[in-house]
Amino acid sequence: MVFSSDPVVSVSNASIFQGIHTVLSDLNFSIEKGEFVFLIGRTGSGKSSLLKTLYADLPLIMGDAYISGYQLNGITQKNIPFLRRKLGIVFQDFQLFPDRSVAENLHFVMRATGWKDKTKMKSRMIEVLMGVGLGGASNKFPHQLSGGEQQRVVIARALLNEPSILLADEPTGNLDPEVSDGIFKLFQEINKRGTAILMATHNYELLKKYPYRILKCENGRLLDSKTTKFQIGQDWAL
Ligand SMILES: Nc1ncnc2c1ncn2[C@@H]1O[C@H](COP(=O)(O)OP(=O)(O)OP(=O)(O)O)[C@@H](O)[C@H]1O
Fold it and tell me: Which branch of life, at top level (predicted)?
């Protein structure tokens, strides 16, 4: 049972591994419902590994972690799809099926996550596409959309099951600055509607402009702007 006062993410005494290599150790942090948090750090510092652990693509071997009401340590293969229904995941590369329309891309996820009622599926699909500003795009194929529009479809797809948190790994990394600004604003709108966001980014401008909480991977540790003062760094050295 998830109570509304529970944090969406809660991590204690955890270490993050890639095989036998420890990437981050002694992690202790939580993310509250509706919080917006940046995740920063130099290339190879562990941002993606942390996100992968949170969506159970990497096993949590040491420590405790809960996300969207699921305990990550000891989670079974059978339960991972159920966990992922509670999360929205957005990557830098859009990962849409190129040979399927926008509607078919969304339908695929809905069917895979247990939706059956065709009327409800259609109205939810329209709702999420409208929500990302792509109300008229359902019959288009990915190649007929710009990079920014494709990313909006990916965000719509991530929102289908009303996740309590969106995990975003460099979601604006492949887009030019103006387009990425629009995508960032979309994340802010989604956040204002109540979804927590954990966003890995190298975009120094965003950090300067929007004073959200920052988690920084540095020297195998995770620094938290809520409890520690630290330098953000320059964009090449985030
Ligand atoms: N699949 C993998 N197998 C083994 N080691 C890996 C794998 N992926 C990443 N690593 C290693 O884990 C460490 C953390 O990498 P990670 O991708 O989490 O960093 P990152 O902060 O997300 O980097 P970037 O900003 O470049 O995306 C690095 O030392 C990297 O080489």
Answer: Bacteria
